[in-house]
Design brief:
The protein is α+β, with helices and mostly antiparallel strands and about 130 residues long. The chain has helices at about 1-10, 55-65, 95-105, 120-130, and strands spanning about 15, 30, 35-45, 70-75, 90-95, 110-115.
């Protein structure tokens, strides 16, 4: 999902964060003109559960308390879907992390899109606060 986002999310700089030092830090730091956001990427291919570590939950909660924008972007594959053509992108704000952890994708997303369509433009607008 990182590669697809990097190819399609325009006018920004995405840095992949791979760190064992800061447990819970989201996967991507995204710089838009005048704004930074952090995004955790998750893929759900079986079932409806989104697996989040206690460190990830804590990171999003602490930053939500400080009103720092963090997000969890979930690519959900419906049952029987293997190619991704019918998958959905579900965007959750960091403050929704406990709901997402307990309810999986049944938690109401901040926004959602079919993977095909104007997804990336709409995702950009949501991430920058538009």
């Amino acid at each position: 999902m990182y590669k697809r986002m990097k190819e399609n999310l325009l006018n920004c700089r995405i840095t992949r964060i791979e760190s064992r030092v800061g447990l819970g830090i989201p996967d991507c730091l995204i710089a838009f003109p005048g704004k930074w956001v952090m995004v955790e990427l998750k893929v759900v291919k079986r079932g409806r559960k989104v697996i989040l570590s206690p460190h990830q939950v804590a990171f999003h909660l602490v930053h939500a308390e400080m009103r720092v924008p963090t997000f969890i972007l979930v690519q959900y594959f419906p049952p029987g879907e293997t190619t991704g053509a019918k998958s959905e992108l579900l965007l959750y704000e960091g403050k929704q992390v406990e709901q997402l952890h307990h309810q999986g994708i049944d938690a109401e997303p901040f926004d959602s899109w079919k993977l095909i369509g104007p997804t990336w433009h709409m995702l950009r607008l949501r991430l920058v606060g538009g």
